């Protein structure tokens, strides 16, 4: 089989080849490694049309590309989200699609807390003022302690944010579409509208689906306190970004910390989000730590190893 890694996994190529060497040789498989992130679909098809297995991180994989790979049996995504892969095309063909669930739980949850503190304490503005020779006037901040923290999406990352928030002394509310089972952190599970109304901080931890796209928009911002802040380390399109900018500009929301946007960074220089007040903006780095990168590569490669091992026994 032709195994193609089409995006860097965060491990040196030599390390990947060494890890897979015995399994590939025993099965007579061929490994190809390249970086296709800048290629169009047409250019990508030329490289992957004969692939049996694809490994990637977060570059888009369209229906057209999947359809042009008649031998494709497995796609391993070294990322938690799989919304950038056409899942309908995979289902129609019976192609196995694995993600790297759990690899960045600590990385993302820690950054979410960091964004909360950065917005509340105006760290970005303070840094700019200090570098310009300014002082601490007009930099009055707010504490995380004793705030009400609303977690929208209580999966692994949402629950870890809840644990960290609780450690900081927050009252934690949680919204999840199903009832939470036994958990190790005090969370008051409430409806989304109630969470938005009561929370001082709303932190989003939802996957991007047809149901969650733009689920936080004008109606939801209208329910939030004018003193509240929004944190998004999940997926940009779960928020109506135009509605967010409007709420910030009209002082109907006190601030926002964003690691994701309605488009993947780099954003155009004239993007309206840059003019929104009291924001901390990051270029999608929540998952990007030394530890998380190593973990996602390991998970993706384990999925590949398990698949090849099972094929050898069949």
Would you kindly provide a written description of the structure presented here, covering whatever features stand out?
This protein has a seven-stranded parallel beta sheet with strand order 8-7-6-9-10-11-12, sandwiched between helices. The protein has a five-stranded parallel beta sheet with strand order 2-1-3-4-5, sandwiched between helices. The protein is elongated and about 65 Å long. The protein has two domains: 126 residues, 3-Layer(aba) Sandwich (Rossmann fold), CATH 3.40.50; 177 residues, Rossmann fold. Helices cover 38% and strands 15% of the residues. The chain is built from eleven helices and twelve strands. 38% of the residues are buried. It starts with a strand and ends with a helix. Helix 1 links the parallel strand 1 and strand 2. Helix 1 packs parallel to helix 11 and helix 5 packs across helix 7. The longest helix is centred in the C-terminal third of the chain and has 24 residues.
């Amino acid at each position: 089989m032709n195994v193609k890694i089409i995006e860097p996994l965060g491990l040196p190529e030599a390390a990947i080849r060494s890890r897979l060497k015995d399994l590939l040789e025993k099965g007579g498989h061929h490994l190809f490694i390249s970086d296709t992130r800048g290629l169009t679909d047409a250019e990508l098809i030329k490289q992957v049309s004969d692939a049996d297995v694809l490994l990637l991180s977060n570059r888009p994989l369209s229906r057209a590309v999947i359809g042009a790979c008649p031998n494709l049996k497995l796609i391993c995504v070294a990322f938690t989200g799989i919304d950038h892969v056409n899942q309908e095309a995979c289902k129609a063909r019976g192609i196995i699609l694995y993600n790297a669930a759990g690899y960045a739980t600590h990385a993302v949850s820690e950054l979410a807390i960091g964004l909360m503190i950065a917005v509340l304490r105006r760290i970005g503005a303070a840094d700019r003022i200090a570098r310009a020779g300014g002082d601490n006037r007009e930099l009055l901040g707010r504490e995380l302690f004793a705030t009400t923290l609303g977690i929208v999406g209580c999966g692994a990352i949402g629950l870890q944010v809840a644990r960290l928030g609780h450690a900081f002394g927050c009252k934690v509310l949680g919204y999840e579409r199903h009832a939470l089972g036994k958990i190790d952190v005090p969370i008051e599970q409430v409806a989304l509208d109630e969470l938005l109304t009561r929370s001082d901080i709303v932190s989003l931890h939802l996957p991007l689906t047809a149901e969650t796209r733009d689920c936080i928009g004008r109606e939801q911002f209208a329910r939030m306190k004018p003193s509240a802040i929004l944190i998004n380390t999940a997926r940009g399109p779960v928020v109506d970004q135009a509605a967010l900018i409007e709420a910030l500009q009209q002082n109907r929301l006190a601030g926002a910390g964003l690691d994701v946007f309605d488009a993947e960074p780099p954003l155009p220089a004239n993007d309206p989000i840059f003019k929104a007040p009291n924001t901390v903006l990051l270029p999608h780095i929540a998952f990007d730590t030394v530890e998380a990168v190593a973990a996602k590569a390991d998970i993706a490669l384990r999925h590949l190893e398990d698949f090849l091992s099972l094929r050898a026994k069949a």
